[in-house]
Amino acid sequence: MEENADKRYKVTNKVGIFGMIGNIFLLAIKACVGITSKSQAMIADSINSAGDIFASLMAFIGNKIASVPKDEDHNFGHGKAEYLFSLFIAISMILISIKTIIDAVLTLINGSELQFSWWLVVVCLVTIIVKLSLYIYTKFAYKKYKNILLEANMQDHRNDCIITTFTLISSLLSIKGIHWFDGVVGIGISLWICKTGIEIFIESYNILMDVSVDSKTKETITEVIKKNKDIKAINNISSTPVGYKYIIFVVIAVDGNMTTFESHKLADKLENSIAKLDNIYKAIVHVEPFIENNKKIENKDEN
Length: 303
Known about the structure:
Layout (H helix, E strand, L loop, with lengths): L1 H36 L2 H27 L14 H30 L7 H28 L2 H26 L6 H29 L6 H12 L4 E12 L2 E10 L5 H16 L4 E10 L14
Parallel strand pairs: 2-3
Antiparallel strand pairs: 1-2
């Protein structure tokens, strides 16, 4: 498990570094061409690249903190740093989108000053190639390690491919004198960035607010429990997230005549079985005596 966590950390680190290098390069060429050609879509695209650099940086830092093992002050490790830093990424995306929406609307109102240049086309094509390559690489890593920081970067790269395609279309339309489309694309880009930012924000917020494990995993846990014939009833299954994994709390009921040793042995076996599931960090099983009609034994004061 530790070896897998170490690999997960290293791969996420690589994705963050490659993302920063790629986005710094794209920011430089987009900003130069966007400003000289006065393309609102390309300027919005360059601002998006600046946001992507921040996202890659947050992924790098968040991953580094999340990989720190558990200690006396953090008994379950530092995994939630992934979600805290993905929250920063989401907020930056939303703020950037608001700024570019305002600029694009003003362009539509005041009229576009876009001056066509073949450099716009070249930059768009280069961006699509670079971002598509980063998207494929990051998607492969995300599918294997299910890291929300990888997911945020993956969506960024995918969005950029789509965004830049529309920027390319607006540039080509300007040859025919259709300049208003540039402002419309600027707004579209901004709304797309905002939507993605909100989605990542909600997912990160839910984890930080201790959202329960998904229903599919809960069903799998129930099936694992039901395989043991000594368990008479499942009184409760609850969970709390720890980074990208969950701690599962299970309350089971067994025959009241079962010895303490046997019930503890059963609980240990069940904890180990549940902990083997992909997204489970730890399982804690509490055993209670089974009472018909789900009534539990009440301790009465003899005095």
